[in-house]
Amino acid sequence: MILTDVVALIIVYLYVAVIFVIAERVLNTRPEVSRKFLHIMVGNMIFAMPFFSDPWVMILFLTLPITVVLFFLTEYSPIKIKNSVTESGHALGLFFYAGIWTVLIAVFSNRLWIVALAIVPMVYGDGFAALIGQKFGKFKYYIFGGEKSLEGSLTMFVITTVMSVFVWMIFTSIGYPMPKFNIVYIIAISAVATVCEALSYGGIDNLTVPAITSILYYLVAIS
Fold it and tell me: Which residue of 97, 143, 157, 170 could cross-link 206, Cys pair, CB 3.0 to 4.6 Å?
């Protein structure tokens, strides 16, 4: 691990700490907003990935430790820890949220842009979809016992598409090796991610959406 990795880790940890403080002290009266605020803002770590000299530094000192800690907050933990999470599936969803980062970085360590674009629908798409759907969703539909709204699903598709383009532009601008930009691929994969999220329930979308999205972008990369 070189100095730049140490600096990057320090910056990321400080950023996450600030985000948690804001969520706890400023948004604590609105737990759902606070949860989605964390969900979205922590996801901004994708922009730090290209600055690590070795992706395994992120795994060993960031995503894996967080995943392990979050596992001990789930009902499946062999050690029972008092947990303030009350929403069903929330703790397990957080475990999936951190775990998929670890898996994707390990699998696509030479193509971190795939990791970033696979995380986008989980972080931004799903995050904003929940907020918009809960506040403005009037046209409800139900799949596998989960309640969704057309407004939320449309928000996920639009936000995922826009943020995917933005992430692609950022990675390209800093010189990270990228395939040729193709908006059709982005729109199509964003649509698949939206359908996948609609079919998932109970926090499992934090696994299924990034997994399927990463596979699709990998297929684009090798085509």
Answer: 97
CA gap 116, 50 in Å, rounded: 10
- 130: which 2 tokens? 């929940």
Read off the tokens for 97.
């949220």
Q: What is the DSSP letter of 40?
A: H
Q: What are the angstrom distances between the C-alpha of 193 and each of 38, 197, 207, 208? A: 21, 6, 11, 9
What is the rounded average pLDDT of the residues 52-72? Answer: 91
DSSP per position, 134-179: HHH--SEEEETTEEEEHHHHHHHHHHHHHHHHHHHHHHHHTT----
The angle that helices 112-120 and 90-107 make with each other, rounded to 10 degrees, is 160
CB atoms within 10 A of CB 77: 14
Percentage of the residues of the chain whose pLDDT score is greater than 90? 59
Which of 103, 106, 98, 39 has its CA nearest to residue 74? Answer: 98
C-alpha distances in Å from residue 72, one per residue of 16, 65, 77: 20, 11, 5
Rounded CA-CA distance 112/48 in Å is 11
Question: Which position has the higher pLDDT, 62 or 77?
Answer: 62
Average pLDDT, the chain: 88
Name the band, by pLDDT with cuts 50, 70 and 90, for residue 88.
very low
What are 105's two structure tokens?
């970085």
pLDDT, tens digit, 9 for 90 and up, residues 124-144: 999 999 889 888 888 888 887
